[in-house]
Design a protein that fits this description.
mainly alpha
Length: about 120
C-alpha cells in the first residue's frame, strides 16, 4: 500500500528479499554449505574458548574474561546475520516464517548488529 495521505507519503513493505550474489540465483543452494560451515566453526571455536576460560581456574583473570566476553559478543553478531541468510539461501521464500513484519525484523536485526559492533568496540 502506497500513496499520499494528509500531505505525507505513506508506503509499507510486506517482505524483504536477500538477493545473494548477482548472477548466481540458480546456485543459491550451493552457497549454503560454505556459510553453514563458517557459522558452525564460529560457534564451535568460540564456545570452546569460552568453556576453557570458564572451566580453568588459572584463566579467570581480567584479560581472559575480556576475551571470553568478546567471543560471546562475536557469537551474538554471527547469530544476528547468518541464520536469516542461510534460510534465504536454502529456500526460495523471501523471509523466515516469523510473526514480525519485514520492517520490524529488519529493525531488530539492525539493532542487534549495531549493538554487538558498538559493545565490542567500546570494551576494547
Amino acid at each position: 500500500m502506497s500513496g499520499w495521505g494528509n500531505g505525507t507519503y505513506n508506503e509499507s513493505y510486506t517482505s524483504f528479499l536477500l538477493m545473494g550474489f548477482p548472477g548466481m540465483q540458480e546456485a543459491r543452494v550451493l552457497l549454503v554449505l560454505p556459510f553453514l560451515s563458517l557459522y558452525l566453526v564460529i560457534l564451535f571455536t568460540n564456545a570452546l574458548v569460552i568453556h576453557t576460560v570458564a572451566s580453568q581456574r588459572s584463566l579467570r583473570q581480567p584479560m581472559y574474561l575480556l576475551i571470553a566476553l568478546l567471543l560471546a559478543v562475536n557469537v551474538c553478531a554471527a547469530t544476528t546475520v547468518l541464520p536469516a541468510m542461510l534460510f534465504s539461501f536454502s529456500t526460495l521464500q523471501p523471509q523466515p516464517p516469523l510473526s514480525l513484519d519485514a520492517w520490524d525484523r529488519c529493525s531488530v536485526s539492525t539493532f542487534w548488529f549495531l549493538w554487538t559492533a558498538t559493545s565490542s568496540s567500546s570494551w576494547l
